[in-house]
Specification:
This protein has four helices and four strands; from the N terminus they run βαβαββαα. The protein is an alpha+beta fold. It has a single domain, classed as Glutaredoxin, CATH 3.40.30.10.
Length: 85
């Protein structure tokens, strides 16, 4: 299974929903980068993704985007494929 990395904040409901969806898909080792605990990671996230909102999710080296993007991939049946690569 591809590694999954998620930039997040503790108080972000979309981050919680994204994490729940990933767990339902069998992702056991989600790497969470908390930008609220480490403000330097916010700068890294913006440089890496070009976006300022959380969550920002990577599956392997592929930038998925936020929760809406993740959920859309799941509805289209593409998330399982991406996770299994």
């Amino acid at each position: 299974m591809n590694p999954v990395t998620m930039y997040s904040k503790e108080t972000c409901p979309y981050c919680v929903h994204a994490e729940q969806l990933l767990h339902r898909k069998g992702v056991a080792n989600l790497v969470k980068i908390r930008i609220d605990e480490n403000p330097g990671e916010l700068k890294n996230m913006i440089e890496r993704t070009g976006r300022r909102t959380v969550p920002q999710i990577y599956v392997g080296d592929t930038h998925v985007g936020g929760f809406d993007d993740l959920a859309a991939l799941d509805r289209e049946g593409k998330l399982d494929i991406l996770l299994s690569q």
